[in-house]
Write a structure and sequence with these properties.
Its EC number is 3.1.3.48. InterPro entries: Dual-sp_phosphatase_cat-dom, DUSP12, Prot-tyrosine_phosphatase-like, Tyr_Pase_AS, Tyr_Pase_dom, TYR_PHOSPHATASE_DUAL_dom. This is protein-tyrosine-phosphatase. Keywords: Hydrolase, Protein phosphatase. By secondary structure, this protein is an alpha+beta fold. It folds into two domains: 148 residues, Protein-Tyrosine Phosphatase, Chain A; 115 residues, Metal Binding Protein, Guanine Nucleotide Exchange Factor, Chain A (Beta Complex). The protein has eight helices and 14 strands. The strands form four sheets. The chain has a five-stranded mixed beta sheet. Strands 8-13-10-9 form a four-stranded antiparallel beta sheet, with no helix packed on it. Helix 2 packs across helix 3, helix 3 crosses helix 4 and helix 3 packs parallel to helix 5. It is elongated and about 80 Å long.
């Protein structure tokens, strides 16, 4: 008799593909009471008649959002285990989608990393291999500390925004206005190291926590085809609320003006642009370093001190000694 693959450990948790559902004797022996189907194919309802059944309709593609379903699939698996029965998680082949949901449950239950859970799962089913997109979602789930409500976590919200931007870019279009996430309307952390001010009118345009970091490209590969790197000439930023009138016009690219003096301070390109350091940034919302000043914020101690010219010292008022100061 063909057996079904059981996740290592004390849990009555099993994984498989569509053909696993045909192994009725093995399912009965495992006391399967709950079946989680993670696929979009038409399903024969007769196969699931004896079980409590949950379906998550997703394709096995990198851009599918399986992360949003983790709290619900975790709860379903837990319900089956708490009831004393066995739980089968399956997709078409028992390789990617089902593995992703089982790994998410193991992470949530044991606090393990995505890599650790995958290694353990492969002891039961060696072909398990979440696609690249699902693996990144599991890694994000790990960084988010496996919350009960992923949609309320800023990291998830930002990831969803990036997914929308990537979809728009792939279609050669600007994102829809209502899908643009203006970061300063979500996060107003006052602990920024510095702010960027318009060089002409001194209007604050951004603070350091809204700067998008990017790595300088290595020029050793195909160096004959690439120009030597230079210092970055731009700050790349998250969308900010003062940019709203321009970014919501639906244009693929354009320029950014200071909202106070209307000086051209930068540009944007939803399809991305290449920085002077050779790195491509997508999407690219940039402020030219030559159009702004970087103003460092003083610490409380420094801001309360007397600022003096270089070499100058504090002289006590007439009639007072330094000891009396």
């Amino acid at each position: 008799m063909a057996l079904i693959d059981k996740v290592p450990g004390e849990l009555k948790l099993y994984i498989g593909g569509m053909f696993t559902l045909r192994r009725r004797e093995a399912l009965e022996q495992a006391n399967i009471t709950h079946v989680l189907s993670v696929l979009r194919l038409p399903l024969d309802k007769a196969l699931f008649a004896p079980f409590k059944h949950m379906v998550v309709e997703v394709d096995d593609t990198d851009d599918e959002n399986l992360l949003e379903h983790f709290p619900a699939t975790n709860a379903f698996i837990q319900e089956g285990l708490d009831g004393g029965g066995g739980v089968l998680v399956h997709c078409a082949m028992g390789k990617s989608r089902s593995a992703t949901c089982v790994i998410a449950y193991m992470m949530h239950r044991y606090g393990s990393s995505a890599a650790e859970a995958l290694t353990l799962l492969r002891q039961a089913r060696s072909i398990c291999e979440p696609n690249e997109g699902f693996m990144k979602q599991l890694e994000l789930y790990e960084k988010m500390a496996m919350p009960l409500n992923v949609e309320q976590v800023p990291a998830y919200q930002r990831w969803r925004y990036q997914q929308e931007i990537e979809l728009s870019r792939a279609c050669g279009q600007a994102p829809e206005a209502e899908k643009i996430r203006f970061e300063d309307e979500y996060h107003t952390d006052g602990n920024a190291a510095f702010e960027l001010r318009c060089r002409k009118c001194r209007r604050p345009l951004a603070t350091s926590q809204y700067i998008v970091a990017h790595a300088v490209s290595d020029t050793t590969e195909n160096s004959s085809c690439r120009r030597p790197p230079q210092a970055c000439a731009h700050y790349f930023l998250d969308p900010l609320s003062w940019m709203r009138p321009e970014l919501e016009q639906g244009k693929l690219e354009g320029r950014l003006e200071c909202p106070k003096c209307h000086t051209n301070v930068g540009k944007y390109a939803w399809q991305g642009m290449q920085c002077s350091c050779n790195e491509w940034v997508v999407p690219a919302i940039s402020i030219a370093k030559g159009r702004v000043d970087e103003v460092r914020k003083l610490t409380d101690t420094a801001s309360s001190a007397i600022r003096l010219p270089p070499g100058a010292s504090v002289r006590p008022p007439s009639g007072l000694s330094r000891q009396n100061l």
